[in-house]
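Inverse folding, one chain.
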């Protein structure tokens, strides 16, 4: 019998566990439910032991971040398929079946994701993954239903399954053997873009990812780090550069990395003009980290493949005012 494990990585998310875990349990009858706690300092562990004793609890020794937390916890989960699910996600009826059916019948696909909508504005797509992720020619991520900070209203325009470049870490199903085949996430990412790195490495080995919009979930978003957090900005800019350094062929690195540094500096100046000094400092810190650690980042390269996209999302979005995926 096929085994599916829904694995929720939690850090100080007691309020979300209390709110959303009952629905996950109720609507995932044929799956094992696992909560891996990243050394929370709130009441998460006590809540799980007292109110959800049937849920398997993995208590990690420290906060390993999203990437390291899943790497450590999934070593302890015996299953054919993992569903990585944020603690602040509301699942719906029949959410697991379309994902499982898709992967079970298509061995060249390592992972897939559902349609991810906004819990607080339920007609809108959610920022973190929307209806499937892509990257443009400079490595900037965007989604069907979300480009930068612009999220679209879901009118059914993306209800067809498509191949995607990356699947959202907020909710993805991945074949366990494929996850372990590439040694899981790169723990040095800590959080943000580690799922893009994972998907890119699998893609370099010939595996694919799919958006399966017959499955729908609702995501609160920003449950661990708010979207305005300077630390989140630091992680996004740092990991955006790490993503390219780890995965691009050498000849593309010489072209794209200098351009990305230049574009990041424009973003830093824009933050300063807007009065967001902390965000600007976060960009500077991200660059300083990458410059200091560049030798080690390059040594961590395993499988590489070039970016085939010719899109320039920054140009399309800010100059041509194309705010929707369908406009691209």
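Residues assigned per position:
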């Amino acid at each position: 019998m096929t085994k599916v494990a829904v694995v929720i990585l939690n850090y100080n998310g007691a309020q979300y566990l209390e709110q959303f875990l009952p629905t996950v349990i109720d609507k995932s009858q044929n799956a094992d439910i696992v909560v891996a706690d990243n050394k929370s300092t709130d009441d998460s562990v006590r809540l799980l032991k007292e109110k959800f004793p049937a849920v398997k609890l993995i208590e990690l020794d420290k906060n390993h971040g999203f990437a390291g937390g899943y790497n450590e916890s999934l070593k302890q989960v015996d299953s054919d398929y993992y569903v990585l699910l944020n603690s602040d996600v509301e699942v719906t009826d029949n959410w697991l079946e379309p994902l499982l059916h898709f992967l079970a019948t298509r061995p060249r696909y390592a992972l897939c994701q559902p349609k991810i909508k906004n819990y607080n504005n339920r007609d809108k797509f959610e920022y973190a993954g929307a209806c499937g992720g892509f990257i443009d020619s400079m490595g900037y991520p965007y989604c069907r239903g979300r480009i930068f900070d612009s999220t679209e209203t879901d009118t059914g325009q993306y209800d067809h399954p498509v191949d995607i470049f990356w699947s959202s870490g907020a909710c993805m199903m991945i074949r366990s053997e494929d996850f372990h085949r590439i040694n899981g996430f790169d723990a040095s990412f800590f959080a943000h873009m580690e799922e893009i790195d994972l998907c890119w490495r699998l893609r370099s080995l010939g595996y694919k990812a799919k958006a399966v919009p017959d499955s729908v979930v609702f995501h609160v978003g920003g449950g661990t780090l708010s979207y305005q957090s300077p630390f989140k900005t630091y992680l996004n800019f740092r990991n955006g550069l790490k993503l390219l350094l780890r995965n691009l062929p050498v000849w593309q690195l010489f072209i794209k990395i200098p351009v990305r540094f230049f574009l990041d500096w424009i973003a830093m100046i824009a933050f300063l003009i807007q009065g967001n000094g902390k965000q600007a400092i976060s960009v500077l810190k991200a660059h300083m980290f990458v410059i200091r650690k560049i030798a080690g980042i390059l040594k961590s390269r395993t499988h590489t493949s070039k970016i085939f996209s010719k899109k320039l999302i920054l140009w399309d979005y800010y100059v041509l005012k194309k705010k929707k995926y369908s406009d691209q």
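The mean pLDDT is 95. The chain has ten helices and 13 strands.
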